[in-house]
Amino acid sequence: MRLLHTSDWHLGRSFHRVALLDAQAAFLDHLVATVREREADAVLVAGDVYDRAVPPLAAVELFDTALHRLADAGVPTVMISGNHDSARRLGVGAGLLDHAGVHLRTDPAGAGTPVVLADRHGDVALYGLPYLEPALVREQLGAARSGHEAVLTAAMDRVRADLAARPAGTRSVVLAHAFVAGGEPSDSERDITVGGVAAVPAGVFDGVDYVALGHLHGSQTVTPRVRYSGSPLAYSFSETTHRKTMWLIDLGADGAIDTAERIDCPVPRPLARVRGRLDDLLADPDLTRHEDSWVEATLTDPARPADPMARLTARFPHTLHLVFDPDRTDDDPLVSYATRLRDRSDQQIAEDFVAHVRGGAGPDDAERAVLTAAFDDVRVDTAEREAGR
Questions:
Q1: Which of 164, 233, 241, 352 is the most buried (most CB within 10 A)?
Q2: Locate the Calcineurin-like phosphoesterase domain: which residues (predicted)?
């Protein structure tokens, strides 16, 4: 069975104030064309269909058009909600859409109920695991404890139980929206850390033939059977080096991955990060190749130059982001402060602050638990408000 795996469309999102709806429409044109040209048997969309819980009307219209086109192509589509989506809103009309071959899986309770497709080798059971916010779904799934690993394990236990009751030789595919250990994040993904832990081990998904992941925006292979498609468009300058693709997976008669091919997505405009003193950036002939790119410029001038954006856009008209990072000596207090903050989580920064005001004594276990609970409560409260609960 040939599967086309994509995720993280983020319909309605912009890129540094540049509207991307036309680029997203071009991607969906490419998706439908690929389905037809490469004779895909199913399309897998692993969450974050929209960029926010209440998307703009133009994004909803684009999504509606895409669903009609996929249904007209006669190729089943299985789609889950991600952490940016409102599961309730995305799931409206799911029962009716099932009859058109578009299968929306947004309810955690349905994790063990697959969409069953068949080819000449037999059945393939496709299980949709929507994004699982631990505090909201733990009781529903009967998870032994809180945390991403626990709720995903509980959902996968339902998958494995259903699969065990099916005829021998039934192949299996899981769609999930999660941060799996070994994946490389970028700046444009929303933090889903719970209790100081964001990632879950790939072993949570043991027992199935292919896992189509969403959430991380770079296309990557965690294991040969566990892959991220990545987002079809870049949504931050941290994705400058990404090659935006979809996975075309050929699932063999025995459940083996016969082939895994990356299908390139259309690029509306390349990204570039340039760094240096303003006069050098304006004169460097090696930067000519970036003059038509979306540019993030980091200026290292010791003093902020006059009219930097106007001067940059004279050469790089699509400059979108300007950063000032003056050259400093290693003993400059601002350098040491930035170094301390680099790659630190919100919780770690808060714990560092406690140690600072106490003259070096960091939080004890009880205080650390209070900080962890506070950060978790804020994130859950945000998730509930965005879901309209």
A1: 233
A2: 1-218
